[in-house]
Amino acid sequence: MRIGLFGTGRVATALGPALTAVGHELVFVAARTHASAQALATQLPGCVALVLPLVQALPPADLYLLAVPDAAVPAVLAAVAWPAGALVAHLAGALPVAVFAAQPQVRGGVLYPLQTFSPSRTIDWPAVPFFIEAPEAEAEAQLLALAHSLSQHVARLNSDQRLQLHLGAVFASNFTNHVLGIAHQLLAEAGLPFDLLAPLVRETVDKALGAQLGPFGVQTGPAARHDAPTLAAHTAALAAHPAWQSLYTQLTQSIQAAEAASVVRPPSPA
Fold first, then answer.
1. Which residues of the chain, if any, have pLDDT below 50?
2. How far apart are CA 200 and CA 214, in angstroms?
3. How far separated are the first and last CA of the chain, in Å rounded?
4. Contact 166/94 with Cβ under 8 angstroms?
5. Which domains does the chain have, with CATH numbers?
6. Using CB atoms within 10 A of its CB, is residue 148 exposed (0-12), middle (13-18) or buried (19+)?
7. What is the pLDDT of residue 270?
8. What dihedral do alpha carbons 57, 60, 61, 67 form, nearest 10°?
9. For all residues of the chain together, what is the average pLDDT?
10. Rg of the chain over CA atoms, in angstroms?
């Protein structure tokens, strides 16, 4: 496919080379500055750099991908003179496909890769789940084909399902990373290396992912045991970090509420 790419952030920087590696042609990269667009375009054979807002006609392409922040998608959609019938897809987890309703001249869709992206990390694209949504059958077929060219795990999800998936991903990835950051800081304050926690973290994640009853069913720790002396000692030790102290208390209460409600069964299939 001939693809026009909007954005030069983490997702665009990872996705652009991945698309060319499996045989697609990146026609252009568009960004707010020429420098950022050019930096990515030089990595993509035959790709040109464009600056937003565009002053020239949009180069023809089979698909235009919006790898921009969720809040910027409506503005980009409104600012570009799209060719009639253009296939345009965003890559956001929480943004509904209805965002395209204000641009009836385009065929809108969603190409959502469920992954975290960082410049220093190499993405194993065949293992990344992709989720597709498009109201039009032909647009859906094109997006499914593109996703299958990258990944072995492709499925259709509607906007409500995708929002719930994205919410779960934030808890599983972003919030988990933040809590690990707190742990890193606490150990650093005690002069202890963070890698002491590595075996524990790996076992916790492996156990949660493999638990027949789900993560709630394998919960351990002082909150689950209602170990009042330890909980009190931990709370006191966090006196210098009142925000973390509050978070500790809230997480403890959430664990105990889940235990009390016996929330140990996986949800029923939709």
1. 264-265, 268, 270
2. 18
3. 34
4. yes
5. 2-157 (3.40.50.720), 161-260 (1.10.1040.20)
6. middle
7. 47
8. -10
9. 95
10. 23
Token pair 């304050």 is found at 189
Q: 């933040």: which residue's tokens?
A: 178
Q: What is the pLDDT of residue 56?
A: 84
CB 150 within 8 A of CB 124: no
pTM over 0.90: yes
- The dihedral built from the CA positions of residue 94, 204, 228 and 237, taken in this order, carries a sign that is negative
* Interatomic CA distance for residues 145 and 149, integer angstroms: 6
Q: How far apart are CA 256 and CA 268, in angstroms?
A: 23
Q: What is the C-alpha separation between 173 and 170, in angstroms, rounded?
A: 5
**Identity at 137, one-letter amino acid code:** A
Residue spans of beta strands (DSSP E) within the chain:
2-6, 25-31, 48-51, 63-66, 86-90, 106-113, 130-133, 154-156
Tokens of 112: 């959502």
Task: Determine contact, residues 112/92, Cβ cutoff 8 Å.
Answer: yes
Question: Is the four-CA dihedral 174, 91, 79, 101 of positive or negative sign?
Answer: negative
Q: Which residue's entry shows tokens 């937003």?
A: 52
β 48-51/106-113 pair status: unpaired
